[in-house]
Amino acid sequence: MTETLLSADRLHMTFPGRRGAAEARAVDGVDLDIAPGEIVALVGESGCGKTSLARTLLGLERPTSGRVTFSGKPLDYGSRALKAYRKRVQLVLQDPSGSLNPRHTVYDAVAEGLRIHGYAGDEREAVAHALSRAGLRPPERFFLRYPHELSGGQRQRVVIAGALVLEPELIVADEPVASLDASVRGEILALLLRLRDELGLSALVVTHDLGLAWNIADRVAVMYLGRIVETGRVEEVLTSPQHPYTQALLSVLPEAPGDPVVLTGEPPDPSRIPGGCRFHARCQILASGEADAAGVSEACRTVDLPVLSGAGGAQVACHWAAARVTEGAP
Fold this sequence. Notes:
Blueprint: E1 6-15, E2 24-34, E3 39-43, H1 50-57, E4 65-70, E5 73-74, H2 79-88, E6 89-92, H3 96-99, H4 106-116, H5 123-133, H6 152-164, E7 170-174, H7 182-199, E8 202-207, H8 210-216, E9 219-224, E10 227-233, H9 234-239, H10 244-251, H11 284-288, H12 290-293, H13 297-302, E11 315-316, H14 319-327
Parallel strand pairs: 3-8, 3-9, 6-7, 7-8
Antiparallel strand pairs: 1-2, 1-4, 4-5, 9-10, 10-11
């Protein structure tokens, strides 16, 4: 895919440290492209910077440096321009119960975006159409219901309908099925795929679950400590992961062969990002001596790695993986 809908270019987002501490680098140099009709999964542990990156792409946070581009134009942070942008790029949150006002009916919840943006058409028809697209049929049956009268899956469909009613070009879904029962997750994922196929909708799906990424994404970007460390087509990355961090995340899936990789410690504080590879303090390859055997252990500890480009084929930011490629390892 050569055409780009949404693009992050050398994006940084820092937050002031507490009590005079150093700034926290939540997003620390990210390039990421999303093409029309493409679903990209942004994967990583809690605290790796996924949500901060998503909020920056949505225009909810202004980057410290770098830029966000949409349809070839840099994002304008003026209030009128942001309002127009948010009509084209919509957010779907993790917890539908927290996203919906318990005092608002389903109709009002879905119509809210239309009213904010001054929709001049037939509001009732637009709400019914959005609910129907989200799988709530017949839509009129749900108009006067309240969130507490719906199942978890139905509430998530209402949230999705509220995003669809403005006919966006891209949605950012933050852990869209994390709060749902396993039996309902597949239905919501199937809905997102159907919307992509029918409407050409693009999506950035933020998740810690590589299994979800496998089921829904065209491409996956694995994030660690503010930076993307591996990216590529989902089949490439999840069947042949090159970065030790990606290998560790995959090893805990029920269908993964071998024993799970147990990472030591917690991710470092984003205000104290270590030198060299930012994963080296927890890296099972470095700890086992494999990096030393490949002659890269010193580089792992001291030599920083470049920012991966936003699109293209499989890429990995890892000294050991690069050494294996040089040696012709499979």
